[in-house]
């Protein structure tokens, strides 16, 4: 009986861990391009974001060299104008920068160095409260998600989870 109870506890704990991990994704902004002045202008980061689903709890990883770039969150109006006079929170100057998405809605990020923002080093994303949920309505609909290379640890975690469950089950069977 104690053996069965132990197995049940282990399965519940592993299931909770999988749910928690699967709900959080690490998005490397720009993938291999990183956080830099893009050759393709602002369309580079717009295109990158269009293939992603962002959920509260996810993390954005801005890969950049310290002193070459930074990251600031702005309002939509400030984002559109590349106006850095009223940032939301502190400007992050040390790379790489990890930002956990804490609220649903639209979020706007820029580099405040030189003319980087006006040259296209800016990112606008819509964040949903839960996976599969629509973000709060905005004036324009986001493009449909595309298939492809999201920088995510969820697949690796799922593989490890299945291996652990198999290992645990082998002890009890």
From TrEMBL:
The protein's UniProt keywords, in alphabetical order, are: Copper, Disulfide bond, Glycoprotein, Metal-binding, Signal
Outline the segment boundaries, as ranges, of region: Disordered.
128-151
InterPro entries in the cross-refs: BlueCu_1_BS, Cupredoxin, Phytocyanin-like, Phytocyanin_dom
Q: Which GO terms describe its cellular component?
A: plasma membrane
Where is this chain compositionally biased, Low complexity type? 128-140
- What start and end residues bound the annotated signal peptide? 1-23
Q: Where is the Phytocyanin domain?
A: 25-129
User: Any idea which GO molecular function terms this record carries?
Assistant: electron transfer activity; metal ion binding
Protein name listed in UniProt: Phytocyanin domain-containing protein
What is the phylogenetic placement of the source species in the record? Eukaryota, Viridiplantae, Streptophyta, Embryophyta, Tracheophyta
